[in-house]
């Protein structure tokens, strides 16, 4: 499966290159118009819960995984990209964050589950700025928090025996100095 | 017998159902736990190293995750009760040792930063243990940048110097080294840092005459070296008065020798590839520079003598803020220094950009040699210090000579215009003895920084406006954020004689 995916991606990439060449010839002498046309363009994305959403090209451009395909096809309105790992709720949140130019105040309004879902989505869609932004937001949340808080945040099951954990806390004692147990 | 079509439909329905269930389960399961380690490491890298280390007790899969972080920052800087420091430092050292022991030595460490403040005598044993394990890490792990900061070590202990483990100076991978040690230390024998590109020792106490050369010899690719010899503690005493440095790779060298233990100190620099040299000296140094490819030379403070061995044919810019009169024994001594200062100036013959202050002009005034011609000189900036203890007309004569020998000068810049303080209160301002009329006529740009709105400053602008036939730009700025007042703007604008001259006031205002 993975192999097939890769090869089709390779074909797409090749097509992209050809397309660029072709388009490059086309827009010679009229670059301003080409840029203008692209402005209001939208791309249809189908989310994991089956919702089809029209997303502005400027936002889609940050999704490197989709960007790979955009040049490869004449993105007429009929073309639809499935993003099976991202729900419509999360996609809406992502659009808000990108439009809000990554304001940390916006991140503060997100629930812990939303933060995590967005991180997973950013990783999947290969959105580098969003990924770093959300990772920073998560780091801010778990900073100076107790081990229990962080376990709860990430949904981690503690699989240490009591003895193992005690031993680890002893050798890493420095790391637990001055941490609030909240 | 089942209908094949029915079977197919049922199969398809089942698959859809399974898929839907899968998806639901996927949503419920915390997907963060199936994130690639690189993603989790990215989050950890945004935390303090200490906090990242605390994640090791989350679960077995997190146990050693933080050990993969490329940057290791071990900072001991507690604000709590000082009497608790020895206990805390003990667990700090245990932790540091665990990190080095359990980290995969094949995975490179981008940055290793170790900082210890709040040292007390009772921490000594752990301190040595820490230094040993840090040194072992530098030499056996693939460390690229290493920074060691032992803040206030000496203030609370009798020890005036420490011995750094020699392993700290043996690494195949190290490219950058920063030592911030407020304590005497010496470069060990057998330094071997074949990939080191830059080193900073701030501050540094020169323990032996050949310490620095020993370091250079062990760093065959070193391009940048900066160190600052200054007072660390009164307890550290050395009698070193000579510093010789020779390297075939060094491109940038900065030396501050801000300490007078001895008289008649000397510095010798020899490097074929040296492009930039900065010397800040206090005390009477004799300086020999043999760097035929030098592009930039800055010297400030005092010298007895400054010898340029092969000249500076490629010199592009220079800053001369140096006095030659320090510890002069008698008048003959002053005269001999003035000839040497003049010779030094000739070595700068190709310079394009010169920043110069007045102290050197005292000896240049006495020199019997003619001012050299600076054919390439494009810009001169007059910088502090200014000499109040020397007759003004003599300084002016040197300036006049300098300007007259820069036939292609286009930019004249003043950094704090104290030079013409004398004119503050007198109505009679005569700039002709300072600025040759031919130079004024050719000048394209006049810049004044740190404008104070004094009478002399307006007069200066007026003089260049009235006589500057080629003048295109006059730029006047105050200190940092301060703005020129409306009154001052008006006054400056009223001085404009030709419309073509553009006036820049402050950051954005162009008139």
Automatic annotation (TrEMBL), chain A:
SMART domains according to UniProt: Skp1 (SM00512)
Domain SKP1 component POZ: 41-97
Keyword Kinase attached: yes
Gene3D superfamilies linked to this entry: Potassium Channel Kv1.1, Chain A
One GO term of the biological process aspect: jasmonic acid mediated signaling pathway
MF (Gene Ontology): kinase activity
Known pathway: Protein modification; protein ubiquitination
Record's keyword terms, sorted: Kinase, Transferase, Ubl conjugation pathway
Pfam families attached to this UniProt entry: Skp1 (PF01466), Skp1_POZ (PF03931)
Keyword Transferase appears in the UniProt entry: yes
Domain SKP1 component dimerisation: 128-175
Family named by the database record: Belongs to the SKP1 family.
Assembly and interaction partners: Part of a SCF (SKP1-cullin-F-box) protein ligase complex.
Function statement: Involved in ubiquitination and subsequent proteasomal degradation of target proteins. Together with CUL1, RBX1 and a F-box protein, it forms a SCF E3 ubiquitin ligase complex. The functional specificity of this complex depends on the type of F-box protein. In the SCF complex, it serves as an adapter that links the F-box protein to CUL1.
PANTHER family cross-referenced by the UniProt entry: SKP1 (PTHR11165)
Protein name in UniProt: SKP1-like protein
Organism: Vigna unguiculata (Cowpea)
Organism phylogeny: Eukaryota, Viridiplantae, Streptophyta, Embryophyta, Tracheophyta
Automatic annotation (TrEMBL), chain B:
Domain named F-box/LRR-repeat protein 15/At3g58940/PEG3-like LRR: residues: 161-298
Ranges where the FBD domain occurs: 441-474
Domain F-box: start-end pairs: 32-69
Entry protein name: F-box domain-containing protein
């Amino acid at each position: 499966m993975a192999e097939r995916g890769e090869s089709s991606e390779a074909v797409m990439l090749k097509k992209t290159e050809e397309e660029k060449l072709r388009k490059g010839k086309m827009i010679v002498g009229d670059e301003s118009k080409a840029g203008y046309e692209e402005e209001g363009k939208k791309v249809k994305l189908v989310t994991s819960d089956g919702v089809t959403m029209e997303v502005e090209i400027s936002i889609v451009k940050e999704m490197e995984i989709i960007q790979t395909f955009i040049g490869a096809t004449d993105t007429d309105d009929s073309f639809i990209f499935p993003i099976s790992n991202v729900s419509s709720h999360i996609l809406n949140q992502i659009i808000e964050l990108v439009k809000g130019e990554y304001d940390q105040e916006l991140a503060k309004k997100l629930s812990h589950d939303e933060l995590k879902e967005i991180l997973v989505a950013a990783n999947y869609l290969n959105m580098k700025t969003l990924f770093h932004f959300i990772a920073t937001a998560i780091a801010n949340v778990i900073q100076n928090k107790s081990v229990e808080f962080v376990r709860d945040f990430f949904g981690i099951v503690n699989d240490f025996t009591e003895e193992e954990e005690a031993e680890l806390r002893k050798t890493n004692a420095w790391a637990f100095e001055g941490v609030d147990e909240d | 017998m089942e209908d094949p079509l029915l079977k197919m439909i049922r199969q398809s329905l089942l698959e859809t159902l399974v898929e839907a269930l899968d998806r639901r389960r996927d949503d419920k399961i915390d997907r963060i736990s199936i994130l690639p380690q690189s993603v989790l490491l990215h989050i950890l890298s945004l935390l303090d190293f200490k906090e990242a280390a605390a994640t090791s007790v989350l679960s077995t899969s997190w146990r050693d995750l933080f050990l993969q972080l490329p940057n290791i920052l071990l900072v001991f800087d507690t604000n709590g009760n000082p009497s608790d420091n020895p206990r805390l430092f003990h667990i700090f050292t245990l932790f540091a040792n665990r990190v080095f022991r359990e980290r995969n030595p094949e995975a490179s460490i981008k940055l290793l930063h170790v900082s210890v403040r709040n040292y007390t005598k009772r921490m000594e044993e752990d301190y040595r243990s820490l230094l040993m394990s840090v040194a072992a890490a530098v030499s056996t792990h693939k460390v690229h940048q290493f920074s060691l900061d032992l803040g206030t070590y000496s203030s609370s202990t009798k020890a005036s110097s420490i011995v750094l483990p020699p392993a700290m100076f043996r690494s195949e991978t190290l490219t950058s080294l920063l030592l911030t040690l407020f304590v005497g230390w010496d470069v060990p024998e057998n330094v071997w840092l074949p990939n080191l590109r830059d080193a900073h020792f701030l501050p540094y106490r020169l323990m032996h005459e050949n310490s620095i050369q020993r370091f250079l010899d062990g760093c065959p690719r070193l391009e940048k070296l900066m160190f600052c010899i200054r007072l660390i503690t009164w307890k550290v005493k050395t009698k070193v008065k000579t510093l010789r440095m020779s390297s075939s790779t060094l491109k940038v060298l900065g030396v501050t020798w801000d300490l007078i233990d001895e008289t008649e100190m000397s510095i010798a620099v020899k490097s074929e590839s040296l492009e930039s040299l900065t010397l800040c000296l206090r005390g009477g140094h004799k300086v020999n520079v043999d760097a035929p490819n030098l592009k930039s030379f800055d010297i400030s403070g005092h010298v007895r003598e400054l010898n340029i061995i092969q000249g500076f044919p490629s010199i592009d810019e220079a800053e001369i803020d140096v006095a030659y009169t320090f510890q002069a024994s008698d008048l003959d001594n002053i005269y001999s220094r003035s000839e040497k200062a003049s010779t030094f100036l000739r070595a700068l013959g190709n310079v394009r950009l010169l920043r110069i202050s007045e102290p050197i002009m005292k000896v240049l005034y006495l020199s019997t040699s003619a001012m050299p011609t600076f054919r390439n000189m494009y810009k001169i900036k007059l910088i502090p210090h200014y000499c109040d203890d020397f007759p003004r007309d003599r300084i002016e004569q040197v300036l006049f000579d300098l300007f007259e020998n820069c036939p292609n000068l286009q930019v004249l810049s003043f950094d704090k215009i104290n030079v013409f303080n004398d004119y503050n209160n007198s109505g009679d301002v005569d700039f002709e003895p300072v600025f040759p009329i031919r130079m004024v006529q050719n000048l394209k740009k006049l810049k004044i920084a740190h404008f104070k709105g004094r009478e002399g400053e307006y007069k200066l602008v007026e003089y260049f406006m009235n006589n500057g036939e080629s003048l295109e730009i006059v730029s006047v700025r105050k200190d940092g954020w301060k703005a020129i007042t409306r009154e001052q703007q008006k006054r400056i604008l009223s001085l404009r004689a030709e419309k073509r001259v553009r006036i820049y006031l402050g950051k954005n205002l162009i008139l």
